[in-house]
Amino acid sequence: NAGVTQTPKFQVLKTGQSMTLQCAQDMNHNSMYWYRQDPGMGLRLIYYSASEGTTDKGEVPNGYNVSRLNKREFSLRLESAAPSQTSVYFCASIGGYEQYFGPGTRLTVT
Amino acid sequence: GNSVTQMEGPVTLSEEAFLTINCTYTATGYPSLFWYVQYPGEGLQLLLKATKADDKGSNKGFEATYRKETTSFHLEKGSVQVSDSAVYFCALEPMDSSYKLIFGSGTRLLVRP
Predict the structure, then answer these.
(1) pLDDT tens by residue, A8-46
(2) What SS3 class is residue B108?
(3) Interface contact B31, partner A, CB < 8 A
(4) What would you measure as the largest C-alpha separation in chain A, in angstroms?
(5) Do B110 and B12 touch, CB atoms closer than 8 A?
(6) Is B44 on the interface with A (CB under 8 A)?
(7) Cβ neighbours around B25 below 10 Å, total
(8) For B10-63, what is each residue's pLDDT tens digit?
(9) Predicted pLDDT of residue A1
(10) Could you say which of B43, B49, B89 has the minimum Cβ distance to residue A102?
């Protein structure tokens, strides 16, 4: 039981490049989330998926797209990266009343 | 709107000292309240939670009481250890939300031997 896994752990992009952050959970949870963490700002919700086949915007969705590929996987895509998207990205899923977080992806956009 | 305010860090303590990290919130009705801990290089882990007024959440020696009258959920521990060094996040889930958490900015705790 690996919990929530994320790939890659680190990534450096140039402005305008695209990439997809991968997230998978093996706990059979319905709901999954993507957050970004910036210094002094806590975590902010980008997108979430309440169940397979559904996605909704969170607080800061601009510049991102998501795909809930199946119950296990929830990916986050940056179509044209910008320096303002430099951040640490966390995926989470919820079971019972607890959110389980992945280890994070540190993304730098130059 | 909904928001969470935490005391700024870092908080630096000696081992066995008493810890308080303040957290206040703004929300309508009765949100659920949480404390999460983030150790270096890791994701967040749920530390404790409280879902209604006057509830006390506790775990690993940490406690926090849901105070509706002061809209607060302060984190306390009687005797900290070096291994408690981490970043602590207070969070709330609004009544009308489906598990969409709102986080405070985090408080870094450094415990010296």
Answers:
(1) 999 999 999 999 999 999 999 999 999 999 987 789 999
(2) strand
(3) no
(4) 40
(5) yes
(6) yes
(7) 21
(8) 999 999 999 999 999 999 888 999 999 999 888 899 999 999 999 999 999 999
(9) 61
(10) B43
